[in-house]
Amino acid sequence: MAEQSKKWVLMVTAQAPTNIAVIKYWGKRDENLILAINDSISVTLDPAHLCTTTTVAVSPSFNQDRMWLNRKEISLAGGRYQNCLREIRARARDVEDEKKGIKITKKDWQNLHVHIDSYNNFPTAAGLASSAAGFACLVFSLAKLMNVQEDNGRLSAIARQGSGSACRSLFGGFVKWVMGKEENGSDSVAVPLVDEKHWDELVIIIAVVSSRQKETSSTSGMRETVETSALIEHRAKVVVPKRIIQMEEAIQNRDFPTFAQLTCSDSNQFHAVCMDTSPPIFYMNDTSHRVIGCVEKWNRSEGTPQVAYTFDAGPNAVLIARNRKAATLMLQRLLFHFPPNSDTDLDSYVIGDKSILKDAGIQDINDVEALPPPPEIKDKVPAQKYKGEISYFICTRPGRGPVLLTDESQALLNPETGLPK
Amino acid sequence: MAEQSKKWVLMVTAQAPTNIAVIKYWGKRDENLILAINDSISVTLDPAHLCTTTTVAVSPSFNQDRMWLNRKEISLAGGRYQNCLREIRARARDVEDEKKGIKITKKDWQNLHVHIDSYNNFPTAAGLASSAAGFACLVFSLAKLMNVQEDNGRLSAIARQGSGSACRSLFGGFVKWVMGKEENGSDSVAVPLVDEKHWDELVIIIAVVSSRQKETSSTSGMRETVETSALIEHRAKVVVPKRIIQMEEAIQNRDFPTFAQLTCSDSNQFHAVCMDTSPPIFYMNDTSHRVIGCVEKWNRSEGTPQVAYTFDAGPNAVLIARNRKAATLMLQRLLFHFPPNSDTDLDSYVIGDKSILKDAGIQDINDVEALPPPPEIKDKVPAQKYKGEISYFICTRPGRGPVLLTDESQALLNPETGLPK
Quick one: which of A319, B316, B320, B354 has the fewest CB in 10 Å? Predict the structure, then answer.
């Protein structure tokens, strides 16, 4: 390397999806390694609508590791970033780019610095877990840059040390995070259950709830639950192991009624143990409760579940519809009960896969206002409306795992300087 | 009896308190006898502010059992009323009133009809458990009328068959409902722990939350929890038995920090198992959460608990302050965050023991508006206010058990006709 010009910059750009747990992860048995007290299962969301794009670059001209997130420089000093960087560097291998005349040996990586630029294609601070996609993308792209030969399962154990749920974003479709037994966390990894094509009828609608409340971070929240809840141990040791088995079977068989029942129950139980924490943690608010009420009422009236709901550490609802038809009918119900504020246009109120909106016969705000009350509430006159309680909806579906973006124009860093474009 | 005039009416009037559980009752092992799946402990509230007054009358001129509740006639056909009436009648004894020339033998009671008139001195439909005071008063007054010789403990087993928590209203102070083991429920009775003088520093403030939501009744709610929650059994069999022992000790020792910690944790766990029910039950709303946040923040800033909170099957907060000073400071905080609507006068906004208001230096609505933000939130500018979210506050204290009212002017029924005055 010594003889090479200091000017070269080697870059890799990757894209990683976010995921939403259907059997929840809540509680660590090791805070530093991020080892969970129970297995969890998630569905990966289509990166077309929710993903992180990360460019990582290496150059002898960089004199320190630096990172930008959503166009602002952030510190890499935190233990979580340091753990990921150290683990990836420890597995780095020789890299040769003959065209550019670059040769980096395994040993060189210990002394070379990296630049990391990361960007979420969805609004930040919306309470949509961006750290899962972020750390998955960071680890995946660094591994590619440094020619790490380990598979995504092994990489998931590294991403896990950035953010627990990030390990599940190393795969598409449905993914299980096996809690593992080893003290060093080597067997606490993500395992793909089925890919995104296995159950491609599913449609996912995310209701981003307007909220001004400051929420308890999931890191401190789950620590407090483990320390103070009298129910969490029973959940982790007795309830979840059974649900994991049932959920895997439901996913294999595309058994929506069982899937929905388990998904809703496990979300509710996660929020129950949060409430059983001292002091109690409330992530759902009245709007979240109203969304649940709307889904439960419709499911009951249909005789079999049409939609499952799940909520992470915040008030946003993630609704999983059994198929497009159910998603269409769900969206009509949601728009009826939660119309946008008068200053919001429909185009920014329903984002992502807008074809669901078209299927629902809704083209503009007048169509929203003309929606009839859902038949299951028709006795209740007037039906209640909660204008402005939801900021926007995102329509999406199960999606693929991380990918390399080979088109250099998609890189976030300048290929000459290695600085943000 | 045959030779007597048909005109006589014999009456008894009694008053019974309501109670609030500090270790919660949630879940039955027998729906008809109303047998609980765990012990519970409550504090009886001062009947001066919250109680039921009931007049029961018997006369050979009555041709059916009739009841009026809050001046409206209601049906006695329900199993719960019938169970109480049958059990009391089975224990009726000879009654003789020489002055009036009345003589009723034990056997006569099976053929005599009663009139029952019951009245709550607090607003109905406010979500304040009126059935506890109501059934306690019904059973207590009927027992006196029919010269039942059993003590209040035995009577509590009858009141329990009207409404589970009613058994705890047969005593003042702190009361334990022992779940019992017998299949017939004979050992499922209330036991007085300490009377109302034992810990008379305590002050209780009830925040009645404005709510338009229809709530799940506690009868169907607890049935659904027992049938569907994966956590309720662990709560009932493992968690509550330990808490009962700790709570009894805390009450005996007037150990407020332990009392507060147990009270808050058990309220939260009750709401947690409600949320773990399928479909989930939400009794607390955003206002309830905000009251908890306000109490938790203040307690933390003081280093030791000043106030405990507990919520029953509804959004209303019951706050138990360690002493008058703490109650005064709590009320100032509550009025700061939850001022009344502009059309509400202070006199109807804080009811019950208004001397707390005087201690807080608040004489009119201007004093409420002039309240400074509590010091523990002083960094947060502007401090949040939630005008109109609370309907009113009731200031009260621990109180006595049921009593007979001997002053005939307090009877609700006309002594000549046996009909409501």
Answer: B354
CA A205/CA A49 separation, integer angstroms: 11
CATH pick for B10-195+406-410 out of 2.40.160.20, 1.20.1300.10, 3.30.230.10, 3.20.20.140: 3.30.230.10
- CB-based contact B268 A275, cutoff 8 Å: yes
**Amino acid identity, residue A109?**
W
Which chain B residue shows the shortest CA-CA distance from A297? B279
- The residue-averaged pLDDT of B364-378 equals 91
- How far A206 CA lies from chain B's nearest CA (Å)? 20
Reported as a single tens digit per residue, the pLDDT across A320-332 is 999 999 999 999 9
Q: What are phi and psi of B19, to 5 degrees?
A: -145, 160
* Interface contact flag, B239 A261, Cβ < 8 Å: no
Task: Tokens 């919250």: give the residue.
Answer: B50
Alpha-carbon gap, residue A334 to A314, rounded angstroms: 19
Q: Residue A210 has what pLDDT?
A: 81
The residue of chain A with its CA nearest to that of B299 is: A279
Contacts of B282 in chain A (CB under 8 A): 289, 292
Sign of the CA dihedral running B217, B222, B223, B227:
positive
Closest residue in chain B to residue A232, using alpha carbons only: B231
Residues 6+ apart with CB under 8 A from B21: B40, B41, B42, B165, B168, B310, B312
Contact B246/A at CB under 8 A = no
What architecture is the A10-196+406-410 domain classified under in CATH? 2-Layer Sandwich (3.30)
Interchain CB distance below 8 Å, B269 and A296? no
Give the pLDDT of residue B347: 93
Following DSSP, what letter does each residue of A37-63 receive, concatenated? Answer: SS-EEEEEBPTTTSEEEEEEEEETT--
Q: CATH number of the domain at A203-396, out of 3.30.70.890, 3.55.40.20, 3.40.50.300, 2.60.40.1180?
A: 3.30.70.890
Q: Where are the domains of chain A?
A: 10-196+406-410, 203-396
Query: What ipTM did this prediction achieve?
Result: 0.94
User: Residue B231: which of A235, A289, A292 has the nearest Cβ?
Assistant: A235
pLDDT tens column, A121-132? 887 656 676 899
